[in-house]
Amino acid sequence: MSAMRKEGVYSRRFAASDAASSVTPSNDSPADSRFHNPTALRRASLMQEPVLVLNATYEPINVTAVRRAMVLLLKGVAQAEELHSAEVHSAANAHRVPSVIRLLAYRHIPQQSRALSRKNILLRDRNTCQFCGSTFPSSELTLDHVVPRSRGGRSSWENLVACCYRCNNSKGDRTPEEAGFKLARRPRPFTLHTSRQLMRMIGHRDERWRKYLFY
Ligand SMILES: [Zn+2]
Asked: Could you give the CA distance from residue 143 to residue 135 in angstroms, rounded to a whole number?
């Protein structure tokens, strides 16, 4: 557990739609001004809105944040396929905010491209404790080694699950069988299939994503 770096703040939007949380947190404006300035607050949250990323072949490959998507557009690496009605203003220009972007050069996506991290395990497990089945904000979840490390359990996709503190404490240094716990489902690596499922869950919120995700 201690070896796993806690990755970013992404619990805020999780309750509404799981994978929107895969967007990176904003560090756009100084925290103080953001909380006292409604315009800055709106802009900061707009910059964190999820954007669907398509490969050059229109295949959906990822979800990123508006901020990152706009960098890709400005660099000429991607082009906007769908736009939000909202705009962001820089010193000289107004830019429509993208909802879907497409990479201009085809990128090969390895079958398993997700890093083993706390964030990705919570994402895979949909912020659901794998022992009691309840959903929690990220801050109230920890990672549990199904087979405890003291018993040779490894830090791997197959041995790490999202777990609430209560279950984690009562399980202690025991296997699920010893503790009388049952896993909600067998932990698996984060595959392209998992990503697709998550993209579809977010896609339900945004009309503009549908034609790329549901075909
Ligand atoms: Zn639990």
From this structure: 14
* Model confidence, pTM: 0.57
Q: Which residues surround ligand 1, an ion (CB under 5 A)?
A: 129, 131-132, 164, 167
Predicted local distance difference test score (pLDDT) of residue 38: 64
Give the pairing type, strands 50-54 and 60-65.
antiparallel
Task: Please give the distance, rounded to the nearest whole angstrom, from the Cα atom of residue 169 to the centre of ligand 1.
Answer: 9
Residues 6+ apart with CB under 8 A from 87: 94, 95, 96, 97
User: Which parts of 54-149 fold into alpha helices (H)?
Assistant: 66-74, 118-124
Give pLDDT tens digits for 1-44. Answer: 444 433 333 333 333 333 333 333 333 334 444 445 666 667 77
